[in-house]
Amino acid sequence: MTVESFLGRRIADYDPPVRGDRITGERYYAQRWADAEWQHVWTRTWHIGGMAADLEEAGDFLTHAIGRESIVMLCQEDGSVKAFYNACKHRGYRLAWTEVGGAPLLTCGYHGWKYAPDGTLAHVQDPDDFPGGSPCGKVKLEEIPCTVWGGFVWFSMDRDVAPLSAWLGAAGVQLEQWQMGAMTRVMALKSDVPCNWKIIRDNFNESYHLPTLHPQIAGSIDDALDGTIFEMNPEGHNCMVMRGLKPSGRYPTADILEMPLAQALEYWELDPKDFEGRASQARDAILAQKRKLGAAKGYAHYAGMGDSEIIDYHHYTLFPNITLTMWPDGFQLLRSEPHPTDPERCIFDHWFMAHEIPDSDVVFGPMGPTPFEQVERETIIFGTKTLGDVADQDMSVAIGQQQGLHSRGYTGGMLAGQEKRVQMFHERLNDLCGIHD
Ligand code: FES
Ligand SMILES: [Fe+2]
């Protein structure tokens, strides 16, 4: 039996046992599950609040809503970032109403209280009308843990949360290779989707659905079971690696000239005709060309990356709800968050962050060629506009699964071995939420 994967990591180190808990249907629609998740998961973990690049001057802010909460993250005089609950200390009005904004003082729209970027109350109307005198300088917004990593501002509602680096564990160290902080967010779509957030998690925690649901990727990503690496980390995060620019091992006789792979060969100065009848060897040839020509073509970031990282797809899921699919030149964020009131809905984000490609004003992302410019989040009414063709396919089954999981005919699921990450995810949730039936 092989003890190392093609990444050079010991397989046994990333393959913890599972118990086989039943994956009940109730968890996808019951309020008691949503309440337990709020108490034991959402208020205890780290969240991505937005892009650090949107914070340039003291007083610039980001907001992020999760469940019924809203968090405001404010840029400080020294460039660091602090996060606060987005609620005025006077009578609770929400302070910041846009996802990105900024002013020297954050002003409440109800009675005009003003807060400095460090959360300290700086101005009130009629200050002498308060018992004990003016509250300015004495009152402060409720601060919560906040840090910047990977180009994102992160926050946690748990004052005792582990530092982000410890929470990320090995996944954080591995992700450093892509130099996420040097990338620009070029696509940011958000939609309210009619399914529980965990259905989307389950989907991104397995690749068993790829041949059926996403047949279009088989020409350039090897989705065959024996070519895919599955890893699970003790922190609850996991990783799946599929070889890129390699046709699926499920279709060994495919014609290379019919594949998107042919374009990649030409870009890296190879002749697709030389690979007729041996398409599976194109990956290694392109990898060699990337090493040889990458710096001259402007792909300076390859120098700090491993061989697999500059050609394959590394698909990380950070527990509980953030998927980062790493491409050689960019990455997707695929996140599902709980709806404020309805366990049968969730908020889905699909972002793409990319390195600038020299001599090009576009980058290739999940929507095809995309202008290289920083974008803000665009909210889409579900079903009225695409979220990306692969994401649309995933969402279409997610809403169908939400229906089926209500059936008395669904008795708890039966997973394939390669769906172990789905099992692991639910067992961790069962333990955190204290629900084992
Ligand atoms: S609620 Fe904010 S100033 Fe009154
Ligand atoms: Fe999918």
TrEMBL record:
PROSITE patterns the record matches: RIESKE
GO molecular function: 2 iron, 2 sulfur cluster binding; iron ion binding; oxidoreductase activity
Keyword Oxidoreductase tagged: yes
Cofactor: Fe cation
Pfam families named among the record's database cross-references: Rieske, Ring_hydroxyl_A
SUPFAM superfamilies linked to this entry: Bet v1-like, ISP domain
Residues covered by the Rieske domain: 48-155
Domain of life: Bacteria
Keyword annotations of the record: 2Fe-2S, Iron, Iron-sulfur, Metal-binding, Oxidoreductase
PANTHER family the UniProt entry points to: CHOLINE MONOOXYGENASE, CHLOROPLASTIC
Name of the protein described by the UniProt record: Rieske (2Fe-2S) domain protein
Species this chain originates from: Sphingobium indicum BiD32
Taxonomic path: Bacteria, Pseudomonadati, Pseudomonadota, Alphaproteobacteria, Sphingomonadales
